[in-house]
Design brief:
By secondary structure, this protein is mainly beta. Helices cover 0% and strands 56% of the residues. Strand 13 and strand 14 form a beta hairpin.
Length: 275
């Protein structure tokens, strides 16, 4: 039973829940019968927050992408399903590049990492390119130093291997990094847990800790070196940035974060958790 809530704080690594409950649950979804909601990503458009997330459609037993909106980032209203396919969708990694809204969700059942664009944001999306063939969980894309980079878990049911790819162009040739897989046989840090954060002239990667179970907590890693030939990272902090509360909507675990800096300098994050 996954649900979504909002955290905030003075630092992207020191966040507290805004309230004691979830802001979006399966009961928030009105247009399909939902088993749960999870994997939230958000951004602002026309001074309004837009959150995209997985809705597990219980009728077809397949993930679809839902949308909720908010004026302040705290109180959210569910809108509708905005993307569905004949295959499972989740982890709707949304971003803006050159005035275009784009999304790379998890599409492992399609056998490729798929890129979508929004000809009518935020309600209509179309498939425009396959970036990389293969079955990958939680593909996490970002632009850094004039290159595109892609983390993806290549063991979607074991959660223990992370591969890295790069490209000079978003829809160009994607090359596997020579150090890839950069993580093997490690369930504690291989599977991505949200958008890569560029902050204070540094890069940070969030990862799911899948021990003792899938989605137990979220850890943070600073990327110390990232070039087409080198990669190093180190865990920061003294423990998970998100973890199970032992009570309520996130009693048993948390496995996703998307953190955004507000105009007042404070940080706002959409997160998920399970009972």
């Amino acid at each position: 039973m996954w649900s979504i809530s909002i955290y905030r704080g003075d630092s992207p690594f020191n966040l507290e829940p805004v309230n004691s409950g979830a802001v979006l649950t399966k009961d928030s979804v009105r247009d399909v019968p939902a088993a749960f909601v999870a994997d939230p990503f958000m951004l602002q458009h026309d001074h309004r927050w837009h959150m995209f997330f997985e809705v597990m459609n219980a009728e077809v037993n397949r993930g679809e992408i839902g949308l909720a909106t908010s004026n302040d980032g705290l109180d959210w209203t569910y809108e509708q399903i905005v993307l569905k396919e004949p295959f499972h969708l989740s982890y709707p990694h949304i971003f803006k590049f050159q005035n275009e809204y784009l999304m790379v969700p998890e599409t492992l059942d399609a056998g490729a990492v798929v890129l979508y664009a929004a000809p009518d944001f935020p309600f209509r999306w179309r498939r425009i390119a396959d970036l990389r063939d293969g079955e990958f969980a939680d593909p996490t894309i970002f632009h850094y130093k004039d290159r595109w980079w892609l983390f993806a878990c290549s063991t979607p049911y074991q959660h223990d291997s992370l591969r890295l790819y790069w490209s000079d162009a978003l829809t160009g040739l994607w090359t596997e990094h020579p150090k890839s897989p950069i993580i093997t046989a490690d369930k504690r840090r291989a599977r991505p847990a949200g958008r890569v954060l560029e902050f204070d002239n540094k890069l940070f990667r969030f990862a799911q800790d899948c021990l003792p179970r899938y989605g137990s907590c979220v850890r943070t890693f600073e990327i110390l070196e990232l070039t087409p030939t080198t990669y190093t990272e180190v865990e920061i902090g003294h423990g998970p940035v998100l973890k199970a509360s032992g009570n309520g909507w996130n009693a048993a675990g948390m496995h996703h974060i998307d953190v955004q800096q507000q105009t007042n300098g404070k940080w706002l994050a959409c997160v998920d958790g399970t009972e």
